[in-house]
Design goal:
Elements: H1 3-14, H2 34-46, H3 55-58
């Protein structure tokens, strides 16, 4: 991590930030659900040779 990012985080926490999660903002919501993430994690644990290029075959809803 570059020094500038570290300084930014230090400044944020000194200003009262109390977590590392992004603040809510307007715009298009994520299309990736927690169920999709769990499915992909299960695929990775099942097949350690899992790659991004095989993602559309293993999880077509994500591609």
């Amino acid at each position: 991590m570059c020094e500038g990012k570290v300084r930014m985080w230090v400044r944020e926490f000194k200003a009262g930030r109390d977590n590392i999660h992004d603040d809510s903002r307007s715009g298009r919501p994520s299309v990736i659900t927690n169920d999709m993430v769990a499915s992909i994690e299960a695929n990775i644990l099942e097949n350690r040779r899992f790659t991004i290029s095989t993602l559309p075959n293993d999880s077509p809803e994500v591609s």
